Structures are given as C-alpha cells and as structure tokens.
Amino acid sequence: MQKLLNETLSQKEADQIWAELEIACYRLSKQETKYLSFQELYHGAYKLIIHKYSDMTHDNLIKTFQVIINEQVSKIGYESVGDFIKIFEDVKSFSQHISGVFLYMEKNYLIPKKQKTFQQIIFELFKTKCFDDQGLSNRIVQSLLSIVKQDRTGQQSDKNKLKAALQILIDLNQKTLFKNNQYKIDVEYIQNEEFYKNQFERKYLNETQKFYKDEFQQYINQSLWVEDFIKKINERYQQEKQRMQYFPKCSHIKIQDTFIKSTIQQYYPDIIQKGQGLFEFLANNQINIVIEIYKLFVLNDEAFNAFSLAFHQYVASTGKEILRNNQNVLEDFIELYNRVLSINQQLQLYGSQEQKFLLDKQIKDSLCSVVNSSNQIMQQLSKYFDELLKKGINDSQIETGFNIFKLIYSKDSFELMYRKGLCSRLLDGNSVSEDQERLLINRFKVECGSVMTMKMEIMYQDIFKSNNEYLEYKFYLDSKRIQSDFEIKILSQGNWPIKEQNNFALHEDLQYLKTLYDNYYINHHSKRKLFWCYHLGFVNIKGSFDQKKELVCSVLQANILLFFNQLRTFKVQSLVQLIGQEQEIIQQEIQPMIQLGLLIQNGDVLSSKLKLQRLKVKQEQLNNDNDTKELILDRKLYLESLIVRIMKARKQLTHDELLIEVEKLYKFFVPDQQLFKGCVESLIWKDYMVRDGVSSYVYKA
C-alpha cells in the first residue's frame, strides 16, 4: 500500500489503464468474463483513484455506460416485454460487475460525496433510454397491458413476465439512503414506486375501468337476471384478486377500488331495485343470493349503505303488512323476527367490524319501527307471556318473547299491560309456576332496572301477606266458633292495575260476611283503610230448586240472586233502587242468567225459573280502559328522579346537555320534549335546581 502511494502515475499511464478498463467494460456488457482478470481490473481502477484520477475515471465511465446502454436497448424488438426483461437482467448483471471492479472508487469517492452509485447511474441511464423514447415506452406498456387483456378474455398469457417487468419499473427508480456510521458512510437502496405509477399503473387502472364498464353495461343491456349478474361480478372479482398477486403491493388496493367502482358502485342501484332484486330475494327466502350480494356490497361504502337501507325498508314494509292483516300479528312478527335474525347472523360473517355494527343497528331499528308503530304487538306480547305462564314455559319461546320485548320503546306501557295479566294470574291462582314468574320478572329487572318491576314485586308480597292474613282470620273465626267460607285478598293501593268502581248495596247475607271481616281488620290494623273491589270477586252459591245446584258467579250476580231468594219476582227498576247500581250494569249482569235460563224477563219484570241447569258464570275480567293518566304520572315521577340524580352528580348543565344525559340513562320509555320541559319546570318550582342564565341549570337541593 505504501509502495503504491509513493509511486507516481503519469497521464499517459493513466490513459493506458483506462483504455484497458474501457475494453473490460464492453466485454462485461457482453458477458465475456472468461477473458478478464477481475483482480487486475480492480488493481487498475484502484491505481487511478489513489493517484487522483477519480474525476477522469468517473466522466469516462459515464460516457462508456451511455454507449453500452444505447447498444443494449437497441436490441429490444417486437416482443417488447421478453426483450425488456432479458436486457434489464443483462444490464443488472453488468452493473454488479462494475460495482465490483470499481468498488474502491464507489466506497471512497462516490459515497463520501453522496453521489449516485454505479448501479443507480446505470439503472437511470437504462430507464431514460427506454422511456424517454415515446415510441419504445408505449410499446413496452402496451405489451404489458396486452398480457392482462389476454388473461381477462381467457387467452393464454405469461403473467410471470408481467410480474417481472413491473418489478423492473420499481427497481429502475431506486433511491439511495446514506447512513453515517462512526468511521464510514453506508448506503441503502430504497424502492420508490412513483416511476411505476406514472408509467404503468395509471394507464392500467384506466384500462381496467373501461373494460369492466363496457362489459357489465352489455349485461345490463341484455337484461341479465340479477342472480346471474351477481355471479358475473363475483367471478370477475375473484379473477382480479388472483391477478393482483402479479402486481406490486402498492397497487392492490387501487386495483380493487377501480374494479369495485366500475362494477358494484356503478350498478348497485340496478341490483337492489331491478325486477328480481334484493326485495324479491328476501321475500322468497333466497338467502344464498342475498349473502352473495352482501359479500360484494361490503367492499363499497355506498353499496353497503344502500343494502342496509334496503334491508331496513324490507323489514319495515313487511312488518307494516303484518300489522295491517290484524290477525296473528305477533305470530307472524315472530316468524319475521326469526328469519331476519337468521339472515343477519349469516351476514355478520362478512365485512368490517364497523359494517357489522351498522347493519345490526339498521336491522334492529327496522324491527323497532315495526314494534313501536302501534300497540298491537305490545298487547299481543303481553298476552303471549300470559298464555305461556298459564300453560307452561318453553325456554326458546320465552327467549323469543323477551328479545321482542327489548325492541319496545315504551316499556312502561308494556309493564302496565303485563301487570294486568300478572294481576289476573295471581288473583285466580292459575299460574303454572311461581318460580317461572319470578324468573321472568328478574329478567325484566336486569333489562330495565327495578323501576319496572317494583310494583310487580309488591304484588307478590301482597299475595304472600294476604295468604298469611287469611290463615290468621280463619284461626280467629275458629276461635269464635263462627262458620264462614270467606276468602279475601288484601292488595296495596296504587300497585295493582285495578280500576276503581262504585260499589253497591249488598244483600244481608253478603253484608254480614263483609262486616265480620271489617271488624276483624280494623281491630288488627287500626291505621289502615279497606276499599272493597266487588267487581274482582266471585261467589259460589248452592241452590235448591228441582234439584241441588252450585253456582259460580260474580258478586253482583250473587247479590241479585240472593234477593230472589226472598221474592220470586222483581221489577228491574226495583232492583236498581235496592242495589244502588246503574240500570245498564244491572241489565248486563242479568243477561247471562237470562240466557242460561236462570231468570226470566218479561218486559220490565224479572222472575226466577225453577228449572236450572248447572251454571258457572266466570268472574268479570279486569277493566282494560285507557290508563294514560297513570302512565303519564309514573313517567313524570321516573323522569324527575332521573334528572335529580344527574344534576346531583354534575352540579351544572345546559338544557341540551341535560337532555343528552337523560337519553343516555333512560331504559323505561322514550321521553318527549314536552314531558322533559314539564319535569324541569316542576323541579325548579320544588327548589331542586335553579336557572343560571337562559338555558343552564344549577343543582340546589
């Protein structure tokens, strides 16, 4: 090393060394390596650099590279892609040999000055020669596009050539990254896809869009069935996905988006709305084709939103049709619900998490719109639970009913209906199982909170206390040696869905039993007051006519019959005055007894008929009048307590913020603006909070 540094190298000697290197460069470009000694070549290049001939060597190399590249590119013939790939491989091999021979120059001259490496110089010269020539550039690109077109039209094509050529377009545009280490500067090659995108990708995407637009427009013009149209799109999509593996990864999303925009986004309205479209597939339960449509539509946001909206409209329109039929409404809706749920479960296997959530929400909203468009389903659901709890519960039936219950917005309205059925079951004692009753109540409690089930639980407590109270009363009668078959249930006022009715004058036999219990109850519960509900009771009467009969009738019917025990004939008006009840009600009560032949009516005169068949008159059902006032009062109390709880925690909120917080927490019903404002005004009047400005409230209590 020291000897070489001490030696001098004249210009003539330097020119002679370069001449030998130049000849070697031409031989390397022709792959004639067997005539060369790489050690001698490296030594010669090394002598030029250490004797300060670096600039001369660099300039001469650039000129030599230009000549060699021009000669190589001129070999690209008609079969552009194959020639292009082969010549690039030769150029790449040439650049590697050059980098080896001039390694010392690259490491100690080019890289320290952060100049282009020999590989980068040679690649850029090759890129410039190939693609600055517009004719050659178009020939190469069109050859690449022809390979794709042949593949799309089912012709034989060499996709491996396509893959290799596209990778060359990326390799030709490599960038160098210089890294400073402690003692040297390293270089790293970074791929840059901009040249590939400009030269090929944009043209390819335009060709793809045009190809699929023209193809599928022909299918539309041919009035192809939607099912076949979807199959065509799906086939093309799968082919395009397989073809994408031959393209650089940077193009995959763009190719997919271009295909989707040219097919799915372009024609989804026709798929949804055309004669045999999505509605008909859903109506005919053709789930497989619905799934195929959805698998494609999740690829595009517009198509997905249109699918979700169409599904929503189908469920809503089908549900409204069920409501219009007015027969077996709940049964038909359960069938629709189960079918929609089954389809949704299959659709949830596809799409992003956000799309799964949005579709699920859209379907739930459509079902909710049907359930809450009228009270029909709510009323029949209450009867559905009532029948199940009377006949026996099937877990799947309860689960289905409970899922429909969760769709109801006005759960307080349903609670009132359900409580009426519970009231009937508790008073009549015809529930299959108390455990099943309590299990369902607990599910209501978990879903909506204790507000919904509080009155139901109190009703159960009342029945339990009444049974104990009755046993104590029986013990009391036995101790007094009083014979009385008189069972009574004590119900706490305000918790049972019982409409108060005006009572009437009792026959002395019934009055005796009532007075007997009144005296007992007052002595044991001095601070309580009883209000008798005659319309909920029933009486067993044993009658002796031509033969002994036992009657089961309402209290009012028993009252009327007991008066006939004294006189065989009464005028209707006389009974009205005697009992103290309206004539219309009296007439309604005696009508069943007349129809069964127990009484005979001749004009305004009633008489008892001696011939009597066995009679069982069922007790009067609970009154089903509109309970709007009670419902509004319950809602007002619940909403006020919710507002107080929120304000106590937040201290100060604007009107809109308070409404948002209420809507987050409510589970029982949907509060309307008028009710909300009324509750706020009521709480301000009660000094729970005060206004702070125009639309802000501060907690005060």
The secondary-structure class comes to mainly alpha
Number of strand elements: 11
Count of DSSP helices? 30
What strand line-up does the widest sheet have? 3-4-8
Into which percentage range does the β-strand content fall?
Answer: 5-15%
**Poorly predicted spans:** 1-5, 610-626
Give the rounded overall mean pLDDT. Answer: 82
What profile does the largest beta sheet have? 3 strands, mixed
Helix content: 55-70%
Terminal CA distance: 96 Å
- CA radius of gyration is 47 Å
What global shape is seen? Answer: elongated
Tell me about this structure.
It is a single chain. The protein has 30 helices and 11 strands. It is elongated and about 155 Å long. Strands 3-4-8 form a 3-stranded mixed beta sheet. It has a 3-stranded antiparallel beta sheet with strand order 5-7-6. Mean pLDDT is 82; it is low at 1-5 and 610-626. With 701 residues, it is mostly helical.
Brief summary of the model shown:
Helix content is 66%, strand content 7%. It is mostly helical. Strands 3-4-8 form a three-stranded mixed beta sheet. It has a three-stranded antiparallel beta sheet with strand order 5-7-6.
Key phrases:
mainly alpha, 701 residues, single chain
Break the fold down into its secondary structure elements and pairings.
Layout: H1 2-6, H2 11-29, H3 38-50, H4 54-73, H5 80-101, H6 103-110, H7 118-131, H8 134-152, H9 159-171, E1 175-180, E2 185-190, H10 194-221, H11 226-243, H12 252-262, H13 264-273, H14 278-283, H15 287-297, H16 301-325, H17 329-347, H18 353-371, H19 376-391, H20 395-405, H21 411-428, H22 434-448, H23 450-480, H24 508-524, E3 538-544, E4 548-554, H25 555-563, E5 569-571, H26 572-579, H27 583-595, E6 599-602, E7 605-608, E8 615-616, H28 628-650, E9 652-654, H29 655-665, H30 673-685, E10 689-691, E11 696-699
Helix pairs in contact: 2-3, 2-4, 3-6, 4-7, 5-7, 5-9, 9-10, 10-12, 11-15, 12-13, 13-16, 16-17, 16-18, 17-18, 19-20, 19-21, 21-23, 22-23, 28-29, 28-30
